[in-house]
Amino acid sequence: MEGFFHQSVGTCQDPARILQNSFFMSHQISHLIDLLAKENANLRTEYHWRIQLSKDLEEHKQELFRQKKLKQMFFNRGRKTKQELEQLQKYSNAEALSATKIASQVNNTIKRKKIKDLQKDYEELKVTYIINQEKSNTEFQEEKIKKNVLQEELDKLKTSHHEVCQSHITNQEKLKTELTQEKKKKKNDFQEELEKLEASFQDVCQSHTINQEEFNSDLQEEKRTKNSLQEELENLEASCHEVCQSPATNQEKFNTELQEEKRKKNDFQEELEKLKASYQEVCQSHATSQEKFISELREEKKKKNVLLKYLEKFRVTSDEVFQRYKPYDYRTELNEDEVVSNVLPDPRCTHARVMEAQFRPVHAPPVWFSWFSR
């Protein structure tokens, strides 16, 4: 049994080591998953930043297009005013005035006012055009510089994004291969441990069947010893009953002692009932727990020893009672009355039975006693 317990302890240590290794591997895997999540978060923020930059670039492009449109509009307006001024200058020389002098006398004053207004507007438009052209040129140069800077940053971001994507792909493939290898290794280790546990379980089952057979044989031996003790107790009760009937003069004193012996007998009977109940509990609990059965069997052994000691004391007390209250010689009374001789037993035979029961050899200890002695 010592080898069996050492084997069971050894098999219990291997799964603990396996669980510890699996916990360590799961911790590493969770750490790698966290790193991967952080890398994905960084890539996501970088992607959003690039989207924001592209939006800003689109807005700048739209603003530049609007500036160009305004510039074209002002340029067209200035060209129209220039054409109008050329026409006015064409009709303002002497030949044109002489040819159209009669036709334009009525509206001469109005035309002069219009020409002055147009010249004034032309000058204002020319000034605003020059100012806007300079402003648009400066803004165009600034936007061009910004565009070049943004283009350079976009190229840098594209290159960095490409590098990050490549590194992410390589890391992901490497992590995937490592995870598959670890998974295969853990699966093989668990399979080996499962086979070892199955083999140890088969050994435990075989040893359990052997212990069950030995336990059944020990139980049969205990039943036989219990029956022998019960028979011996009945014989002692019969001998005490015969001793109680023999003395006539010391009847009252003997009755008190007999009551005491009956009380002891009842106590012994209660102990016997307790022993039976505990025996039933041991039989029921053996199917569920072997260790519990061994502990209860030790307790039953102690109770048995107590009962044996009590039985020895009971034998000694019965012998003392018999020696203290020796019966009269009933031979003369038996010759006179044969009916009484048939009823009353021979005291010497009773004493012989008591002495025989007292010096009867004790049964040999059961097999399970050798287990505990080892």
Walk me through this protein's architecture.
The chain is mainly alpha-helical and 374 residues long. It folds into two domains: 2-202; 246-373, no CATH class. α1 (2-90) packs antiparallel against α3, α3 (108-245) runs parallel beside α5 (290-324) and α5 (290-324) packs antiparallel against α8. The protein contains nine helices and no strands. Residues 108-285 form a coiled coil. Keywords: Coiled coil.
Which shape, going by the Cα principal axes?
rod-shaped
Secondary-structure class: mainly alpha
Return residue spans where pLDDT drops below 50 for at least 5 consecutive residues.
1-13, 327-374
- What is the terminal separation in angstroms? 10 Å
Rounded average pLDDT: 69
Largest sheet: none
How many E-type strands?
A: 0
Number of domains: 2
Instruction: Count every helix, treating DSSP H or I runs of 4 or more residues as helices.
Output: 9
**How large is the radius of gyration?**
62 Å
**Helicity, in percent?**
over 70%
Structure in a nutshell:
With 374 residues, the chain is mainly alpha-helical. It has helices at residues 2-90, 94-99, 108-245, 251-285, 290-324, 331-336, 338-343, 347-358, 367-373.
Helix-strand layout with pairing:
Blueprint (H helix, E strand, L loop, with lengths): L1 H89 L3 H6 L8 H138 L5 H35 L4 H35 L6 H6 L1 H6 L3 H12 L8 H7 L1
Helix pairs in contact: 1-3, 3-4, 3-5, 3-8, 4-5, 5-8
What descriptive keywords fit this protein?
single chain, 374 residues, 2 domains, rod-shaped, disordered N terminus, disordered C terminus, coiled coil
